[in-house]
Amino acid sequence: MGQNGSKKGDKNSKGKGDKTAALNGSTSGTKVGMVGDSSTMKKPKLPETKPPVEVERTAPAPNPVRTEKSHRFVGKDGEITPDMERREEEAKKAAASPNAVAFARSSQKVTVDDFELLTLIGKGSFGKVMQVRKKDDGRIYAMKVLRKEAIIARKQVAHTMAERNILKKVQHPFIVSLHFAFQTEAKLYMILDYVNGGELFFHLKKEGKFSEARVRLYAAEIALALQQLHSMNIVYRDLKPENILLDADGHIKITDFGLSKEIPEGVTHTFCGTPEYLAPEVLKGQGHGTAVDWWSLGTLIYEMLTGLPPFYSQNINIMYQKILNGELRYPPTVSLDAQSLLDGLLTPTRRSGLARTRLTTSGRTRSSARSTGTSSTTGRSRRRSSPR
Fold first, then answer.
1. Among 41-45, 155-159, 229-233, 255-259, which stretch is predicted with the lowest mean pLDDT?
2. 245 Cβ contact partners less than 8 Å away, ≥ 6 residues apart
3. Catalytic residue among 37, 77, 193, 238
4. What is the pLDDT of residue 157?
5. Is 114 a catalytic residue?
6. In the chain, N or C terminus with fewer CB closer than 10 Å?
7. Segments of the chain assigned E as strands
8. What is the Cβ-side half-sphere exposure of residue 299, based on CA atoms within 13 angstroms?
């Protein structure tokens, strides 16, 4: 896992653009759907005074686009250290039992022998992902294979267990599904949807940017997926083009839950994510909740419309300062409606209400009896329900 915002190699150079579609997380570099090594990752040092930082005024090249994949990281959690050690030890004991993490959507028990290995999709430091066919019904899946030795050595047992547990609970048309999970003495196996349309990152890199109508579809589907996670007190924390897959019909599926966390108390202090998409409250280290996912969605929408995240810089410290203090600017190609939406998602005081917003099946918003009122933007209203 790269440090301080360094980039992974170009995915297309290995000729695996669409084949990586089934991978729950990037397969290039040193990880397969897992969080990075936190031993050397530190929080950014923030200045005592925070003068406004202007975004560069120089005109960008035509259709600028981020051409290399971003790296994520995980830092120290804000919980009590002995508790973290206890959970890690409990997870290790669970991983030591071959039957401890067995799971199936149906009552069927499966092993690796029930699948025919077809082709390698991707490989990383924790293991690999393969396209497989289930022998009894011929269905195609993605098999994620993780080496226990590597997971334990990198102290990622608890994160791996959390990823499995979250995928086990979640079922949504715009979230990749976990169908089976089992293990041997040396390896963990997850049998997931095989999504054959490629990563959103691959398509965005190829086309430079998307039309507003296309971005509107992707954003709506992502918002519905996030709403489902948040209703279950799950914060995703790693929304980016690399973690969005497209199916054969062009609809999205969110993948890679290695940084996701259940937060029934509504707040967590883990410093983790991908630098370009970090919300200000994560950088400040004052605790954060599900609202950070809406910031990441705003960043992703901006990138799909323009080709680059709104506060992007190759210097990670400058980028952090822009996220905290920079002025949000738009090229003339971004419509006023899109600007209004992005202002709401990328303005902390307005975005906080999104964590309390619930969508109806028709796409309109509704509130409970404890509604705090209505806010209007360019003629549109949003009713806010009470906090969960």
1. 41-45
2. 21, 22, 176, 195, 197, 198, 199, 200, 252, 253, 254, 255
3. 238
4. 87
5. no
6. C
7. 73-74, 103-104, 115-123, 127-134, 140-147, 178-183, 187-193, 234-235, 244-246, 252-254, 261-262, 272-273, 358-359, 365-366, 374-377, 380-383
8. 26
Kind and range of the H or E element at 221? Answer: helix 212-231
Question: Does CATH number 1.10.510.10 belong to domain 200-383?
Answer: yes
Domain ranges in the chain?
11-39+62-193, 200-383
Residues 6+ apart with CB under 8 A from 261: 162, 234, 235, 237, 268, 270
Q: 173 or 367: whose pLDDT is higher? A: 173
Q: Beta strand 115-123 with 365-366: parallel, antiparallel or unpaired?
A: unpaired
At 303, list the tokens.
Answer: 């990138």
Helix 291-306 / helix 212-231 crossing angle, nearest 10 deg:
170
Distances, alpha carbon 168 to alpha carbons 5, 121, 141, 180, in Å: 31, 23, 16, 9
CA distance 145 to 151: 11
- Average pLDDT rounded to a whole number, residues 201-206: 95
Given CATH 3.40.50.410, say whether it is the number of domain 11-39+62-193.
no
Predicted TM-score of the model (pTM) = 0.69
CA–CA distances in Å: residue 187 to residues 90, 95, 128: 18, 9, 11
User: What is the SS3 assignment for 202?
Assistant: helix
Which residue is listed with tokens 């209007």?
Answer: 376
Q: Do residues 244 and 199 make contact, with C-beta atoms less than 8 angstroms apart?
A: yes
Q: Nearest Cα to 63, choosing from 203, 216, 210?
A: 210
Write the burial class of residue 260 (CB in 10 Å: 0-12 exposed, 13-18 middle, 19+ buried).
Answer: buried
From CA 232, how far away is CA 25, in angstroms rounded?
A: 22
Q: Which of 153, 119, 112, 143 is nearest to 33 (CA)?
A: 143
